[in-house]
Amino acid sequence: MEKQRGPEALAREIEQVLQKRMRPVFERYDLEIRDLLVPLKWKPIVLIIGNYSSGKSTFINEILGSPVQRTGQSPTDDCFTILSAPEGSESGGEIPGSTLVNDEQLPFASLRHFGESLLSHMYLKKVDNTPILQDLAIIDTPGMLDSVTEKDRGYDYLGVVGELARLADLIILMFDPHKAGTIKETYQAIRGTLPGSTGEDRVLYVLNRIDECESMTDLLRSYGTLCWNLSQMTGRKDMPRIYLTFAPQDGRVPPGFEVWMNEREELKQAMRSAPKMRLNHMLQEVDRVVRELEIEVETLAAFRKRFVQRLKGVIRIWGLIAVLAFFSGDLVMKVFLGYPDTPFIGALLTGRLGMKYLLWPVVWSALILASASLYVQKMLFPRFIKDILKNLEYLIPLETAYKRDLWARVRGRIERIIRDQARKQIWIAHTRYLRKIRDFLKKDLSRLYGRI
Ligand SMILES: Nc1nc2c(ncn2[C@@H]2O[C@H](COP(=O)(O)OP(=O)(O)O)[C@@H](O)[C@H]2O)c(=O)[nH]1
Ligand SMILES: [Mg+2]
Q: Are residues 240 and 160 in the same domain?
């Protein structure tokens, strides 16, 4: 019954579950649930990346059924082009990057900080009469150049690709047999933004322009090289599917290549299914952010525990000193100054109890406690923070590669929190929040995964 509910209903449910179970946790740690739901804002997105002239724009034109994008052998296009359909009574046209990142309705606000150079190389094209663009948006990207030339772009190309990959529901990674050398950089750019191993199913690998292979042997060699490179990068034992495709030049299929024509169709079919990937993507995004938060809170809990332990030691020693001072402070005074007449101990032994005998014991122990507190605040705490920051990775066990991966992403944030708000963090019951997070991951999230 429930499985038949539409994607919108499920999307709303994700939002509700998040609001209900995770709001206090998110608020406590200054995260916005709204940011997490950004990908739900707009239509599904397909991102196409790969080296230059691997045939990305040609493939897009083929899908759209008209020559919307410029194509050519040299790096013809140095822009990120978001292709979408005009909405309602709108007419076609182009919207510049600087407008896009300020549009509340669109999910591109996070690209603003890549700077002017990017914004002047990014725009949205509204293409008329293309039914497929009603259901999804396609992002055409400038191809990867070699890493030296990348530096001249004036913005962080790989960073932008990574950010777009985070927003995209489906990522097509396209290479051609001549220039498979840039795979590694491209892959790393998107890898950092995909959640754990789960993000992999959002990526489709394509070896394009195979019609340019001179023989079957040549093709096999290219394919083998790509497989090898991919397995090196993904660290996976199983090979993801690689689509072997080409665009027939002048409508002609070279002899022997007829069998591959189906692959192109299958790739297009997979691309059209991007809207179905949306919910999966949403959940992966929630999964990633909540797991990052889990690590953060686990670390802060460990930080707090360490401090409490350290504090207990201090309290034990200074407490003892305070007790000693309580009983013998005025005795010492009497010995050296001859005052007060009857020290507290003396009064106690002779059974003469009265408030006036308590004055000096209380003064002395209060003095000791005040210096203890001064010591903790001015010396122990700052030194403790410095120590912790130096050995941040030892606060929690990072036993799996996955956890180390997460850690690498949140380390900076944790460092900042401990450096800037250590005092505040000491007072927060992190373990209680940690339990809530783990409950959410174990129960709610797996239940939601089960729905799609
Ligand atoms: N032989 C052959 N040429 C292709 C194929 N796909 C694209 N091309 C050509 O390769 C050049 C670069 O294509 P383009 O789509 O501009 O690549 P992009 O830089 O990845 O967008 C163009 O001249 C295309 O006509 C293909 O599958 N086979
Ligand atoms: Mg192009």
A: yes
